[in-house]
Amino acid sequence: MNRRLFCTALATLPLSSCLIFGEKPWKVGVCDWNIKTLGMPAGFKVARELGLDGIQLSYTPRHEVFDLRDAKAQELYLAESEKHQIEIASMAMGVFNQKPFSTDPDSFLWADECLEIMRGLNQKIVLFAFFGKGDIKDRPDLQRNVIDRLRKLAPKAEKYGMTIGLETWLSKEEHMHILDSVGSNSIKVYYDTANMLRKGYDIYDEIRWLGKKNAICQVHTKEIGNRLGEGKVDFLKVREALIEINYNSWLIMEAAIKGDWKESYQQNAAYLRKIFS
Question: What pLDDT digit, counting tens, does each position of 208-230 carry?
Answer without folding.
Answer: 999 999 999 999 999 999 999 99
